[in-house]
Amino acid sequence: MNGKKWLNGMAAGVMLVGLLAGCGGNNKNENASPSPSSGTGASPSAPAESSSESGKDVHLRVYTFGPELTYNWSTTLKAYEEANPGVTVEAVVLSDKGDTQEAMKKLDLAFASKENIDVLMFSDPANYAQRVSLGMTEPLDDFIAKDGGYKVAEEYKVDTTLNGKVHALPGKFNPWYVLLNKDHLDEAGLPVPTDWTWDEYADYAKKLTKGEGTSKRYGTYFHGPQGGGWMEFLKLMMLNQPINSDFLKADGSSNLSDPNFKKTLELRVKMEKEDKSSVPYSDIISQKLAYRNQFFNQSASMLTIGSWMNTEIGGTDKLPLSFHVAVAPFPKNNKGDTIGYAPVTTDYTAVSSISKNKEAAYKFVRWYTTEGQLIQAKNVPSWSKVTDGQLNPIIDSILAGTMNPELVDKDSLIKTLLMSKASEMLPGASYQGEVYKAVNEEYEKLILGQQDIDAMVKNSQDRTQQIIEANKK
């Protein structure tokens, strides 16, 4: 769907909300977790008090996809209120199960309805960039200038600058890493890597593969691509680069001529077809395999995945841990490359452009993405000033929520998190999803033996260019 169509759809939503209001109406997913609907017990549709910044008391409403269980809003917001008398903060949780798609739909409707929204949270760069382009966020540059003029790229591990302006500050820092079955590594005489390449990763996977048939243990498991999603697994050797880490460039043009795209395909084909060290793509799709089960059931010795797994790597009720786990950084391409660049997810925390309390909202956003992350103690912060000593208790708190934290090599986890860094953030094009789907379809033809790598690259390039051209109209 192109940008014009998206804007038209949003405009239609605004008109629909207006009609509902005129009629007197008030109408206001694997990561599921039950939680209260908001930090104060109010629902997203509930009317909220709001005062202008000239008033004495300020009531801020934070619209978020993060439920209480995984974001600890009650403790976090209470700490802010105690430090800022006269300010109350309400977390409006848009999805009790942390479903970001559901949350974004509700957020768009709430914004179109002109609800009292002070702070917005987005879970990925595409949603962030799209809402910025729709004017839903307030530029923070003037606030930052008054606040000492710090540079986001230096203050945080994720640079949220878009087209020269800052519209959000990053909260958590979830880089991708590699989970390792340390018992399998010990059995094969392999050390826990602290600096390695994809070639070395492939060598590890080959040495860790064992057995045949239904009882075969694979060296690694790659969970994607699937239906245009989990596309990180077709960008493995692009994502560890400081710039141009996606299929599209910042200007929306194709980046599929990047040699690291083809090298990723060569890596995937070699590991599955030649080394037979990665779980076959056909099995992943036909059997609807789950990455957690593959790793915790010891069907695969290595799992490349996001560090949202921190809350689970010590085992859970559903997937208990019966072996030792270690963590390694996202591999690099060449020996001389800098280790640590990896795909990163964060919370893009922004001030709403329709807030009546923008200055107070900015003050909260700045606090939440710095000191507030330490108080929340649910995620590793993006704030670059967090020290090893401050990170340790956060990791201890996270691991304490698992069944067997003693089986996790905490030292390798902390070292990996500290060395990780995000590549340049690119604005998500409105047609990005179409490109992902097309590349996914061409990959399926490749991995299922219907075309070779050169044909897959060319067809992906051709289809991507057609999508780009179609969206210029």
Automatic annotation (TrEMBL):
Residues 28-55 are annotated as: Disordered. SUPFAM superfamilies: Periplasmic binding protein-like II (SSF53850). Pfam families: SBP_bac_1. Residues 32-53 have a biased composition (Low complexity). PANTHER family: ABC TRANSPORTER SUBSTRATE-BINDING PROTEIN (PTHR43649:SF30), ARABINOSE-BINDING PROTEIN-RELATED (PTHR43649). This is Carbohydrate ABC transporter substrate-binding protein (CUT1 family). It comes from Cohnella lupini. The lineage of its organism: Bacteria, Bacillati, Bacillota, Bacilli, Bacillales.
